[in-house]
Amino acid sequence: MTKKNLRLFDKEELTTEMEALGEKKFRTSQLFQWLWKYRTLNFSKMKNIPKPLQAKLQELYILPETAVSIFQQSQDGTIKVGFETYDKETIEGVIIPSEDRITACISSQVGCSLSCTFCATGFLPRKRNLFAFEIYDQVYLLNELALKHYEKPLTNIVYMGMGEPLLNYDEVVKSLHRLHSEDEGLGIGAKRITVSTSGIVRNIKKLADEGLKINLALSLHAATNEKRTAVMDINKSNPLEELMAILAYFYEKTHNKITYEYILLNQFNDSVEDAIDLAKLCQDFAVYVNLIEYNPVDGTPYSKSKKERRDAFLQTLRDKGVSSKIRKSRGKDIDAACGQLANKIVKLQLDS
Fold it and tell me: So what's the pLDDT on residue 94?
């Protein structure tokens, strides 16, 4: 008989399983806490579960786990982790420490289907979506590493690693509920969680209607349809006009300021005229612009914007009344750009 993956069940499904085993309803809450709040993946260590039930669970169910397989630490303190999934795929996570916060950047897919031309993950085919437990595991394990190396827990979570979160909508939302839950999760406040999307209009609306009140970041990177389509093919089916309308809806529902992520690419999207175009997209609802220094990726034609162009771009935005800052590139010495580590692993596998 094939064992069932107990980590795939929501609470209602788990209740049905326990009832089928002749167990009382309270066992569901006990198990759910062990599986999520404490991430206990060994039935024999679930202390308030009777030994006969432990044995029955061991016979009928599996508890697959995500494990740290590669660890890199940058001179600037950034930590890059390669995780191995239960089916031997590699996904990536990053811990970015700063004076007032410790941020974890996590993945939502194995690879990515969007093929943005500046992104290392774009060279990786999307193999599959991650399950909610695999997304959750990344946060749990990165928090352990933060406590070990910085003696502080994670303060912020961003879904900004490998993959497009809103193309794995159901599992991402499940993981958000688990991360947010006080009693049966990690108790991370909604204001401390950000989902970054390349702009999937239909699912931005669904997320707005979930009532989670998390933060939303748009990977914008160009402020006209022509330029954005040149680097992000997703813009063909989700053009800026539709994106701006749905972001206004998200803001109306959540009252959370929208973040625009904008990588400055030298001589492509970093002119004063580009900044003026960007400022026009910041007028209809509260927006904060993160200008990102490009972390160069082998095989792409792009380079980091020059200091004088970057500074002029930032000043133009501020002159237009747009809240913005430059986010320095981190972890340049450890493959910290999203997808770089996984690409390196794929190349090693092909060469071996």
Answer: 94
Q: How many angstroms separate the Cα of 197 from the Cα of each of 71, 169, 194, 227?
A: 26, 11, 10, 18
**Are 62 and 3 spatial neighbours (Cβ–Cβ below 8 Å)?**
yes
125 and 246 inside one domain: yes
Count other Cβ atoms within 10 Å, centred on residue 30. 17
Residue positions annotated with a catalytic role:
92, 338
CB-CB contact of 291 with 310 (8 Å): yes
CB-neighbour burial class of residue 54 (10 A; exposed 0-12, middle 13-18, buried 19+): middle
Q: Using CB atoms within 10 Å of the CB of residue 12, give its burial: 0 to 12 exposed, 13 to 18 middle, 19+ buried.
A: exposed
CA distance 142 to 311: 34
Query: Which pTM does this prediction carry?
Result: 0.91
Domain span at residue 37 reads: 4-62
Higher pLDDT, 148 or 328: 148
Helices (H), 9-160: 11-20, 26-32, 51-60, 132-150
Q: Which ranges constitute the DSSP H helices of 181-286?
A: 201-209, 225-231, 240-254, 272-280
- 282 shares a domain with 215: yes
Angle (nearest 5°) at CA 11 between 10 and 13: 70
- pLDDT at 15 > cutoff 60: yes
**HSE-up (13 A, CA, CB side) for residue 114:** 32
Residue 7 confidence (pLDDT) above 50: yes
d(CA 181, CA 183): 6
234 Rama class: left (phi>0) / alpha (psi -120 to 50) / beta: alpha
221 φ/ψ sector (left φ>0, alpha ψ -120 to 50, else beta)? left
CA gap 104, 142 in Å, rounded: 7
Q: Are residues 161 and 280 in the same domain?
A: yes
